[in-house]
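Recall that a protein's primary structure is simply its ordered list of amino acids. Everything else, from secondary elements to tertiary packing, is in principle encoded there. The following example makes that idea concrete.
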Amino acid sequence: MEPERRQAPTARQRAAARRRRKQQILRNRILFALVCLALLGLLCLLIRSGVRLIQNLGKGGAGASSSSVSESAGEDAVQAVDTTDWRLTLVNNNVPLPDGYESSLTTKVAEESTGKELASEAADAYIAMKQAAAADGVDLLLCSGYRTVEYQTNLFNNEKQEWLNKGLNEQEAYDKAKTVVAVPGYSEHNLGLAADIVAPDHQSLDEAFEKTAAFTWLDAHAAEYGFILRYPKDKQEITGIIYEPWHYRYVGPENAAAIKAGGQCLEEYLAAAA
């Protein structure tokens, strides 16, 4: 028996087969392209997520680092205040002059016209400040500087007597006097670091001094030479002394700049550093 012969495909069948192959190839290409797009999208998503993660970590690290630096800077700022610096020696109504201070003090004339003295470093600073003010057309005059405890005693007793003359009793006069003149041994003038500065045309120790060109200049520049306004207008409850726009205290340029920037009085500055 002869094997069955297959009939040769017709032209139509061959054409149909070619179409099917082409369609299959096209479907395969489309499928491949879709898979590639899906993989590409997944890769982009992973990359984006990774970038965000890195950024978040970076922000967190930077924030922590910044916080640490800020805290460190704050601590350094406090630690930078050397409370043993003799220029920061505190003397007020509650804190007396340190024992033996006067015996170790060296003074020099700071104001030739009045012969007033200050501690040597403070005197040099005042002289430089006076010259700078003069260059700006402003005259400064040191009317009181270093005082011995004996001299301070006379000033205080005179002030107390004025209140006694007004009818106050001994204790009342004493309490009133110490808001104007420091109790002997409790005066910054005994340190040689306190300077009562006025102007040749206004030598009265009164609040009107704040309206002079001398006060305006001092308010702007005194800290540059290491001086601070010792008894500001709004600090009487802390300092125990009434507002004295003429009373300056030498603390050194770096301390003066910090005190002025912080709007502090000396007591507050030292308390913050303690």
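Residues 11-79 form the longest helix (69 residues). Residues 11-80 form one domain.
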